[in-house]
Amino acid sequence: xxxxxxxxxxxxxxxxxxxxxxxxxxxxxxxxxxxxxxxxxxxxxxxxxxxxxxxxxxxxxxxxxxxxxxxxxxxxxxxxxxxxxxxxxxxxxxxxxxxxxxxxxxxxxxxxxxxxxxxxxxxxxxxxxxxxxxxxxxxxxxxxxxxxxxxxxxxxxxxxxxxxxxxxxxxxxxxxxxxxxxxxxxxxxxxxxxxxxxxxxxxxxxxxxxxxxxxxxxxxxxxxxxxxxxx
Length: 231
Description:
By secondary structure, the protein is an alpha+beta fold. It is built from nine helices and seven strands.
């Protein structure tokens, strides 16, 4: 995370809580206490209304932020809870992005709503097995941008293969995430267990295939389930 990004994230973090001690900031952003002191000083010098001390805790008035006009308190609260839940099963850049987004959302909530979000998030449990198969940022980016990927696929009980796929979308079924894609090896739609994809290399954009959009494939799922979720 660049320093400018960290400074903004720290300001939002302070604004979303009544009072934060320097140690909590250091743990949140994986930096030293000395870095926290320097960053808070930089924010104060930049005009952020931060009060308090390192020992007693810092506070940034919520009045320092413009509230988002497009979200109601209930909507922001719902999004924050959803981000907490999904963030628990993600890792890397995606987890960092969700953490930052959640902090921004919480900074837009009043004190009561922030308390409800934190209380409920402590009662939303994501099982340990879920953390091993959550889609990552690179996979989501390939779906968003319409880019093919070279993958190594090693599902349990089947021979490992290498293939090039055209990612279309994600489906969560039971205890697993599945990536729905057009498989160039099989020349048909397939669904790949995310936790069985052992390597991933995003490549060039691919043109849409008639009859093979994500909506098309899912619409046929009830009739083609065995073939779609086969290897």
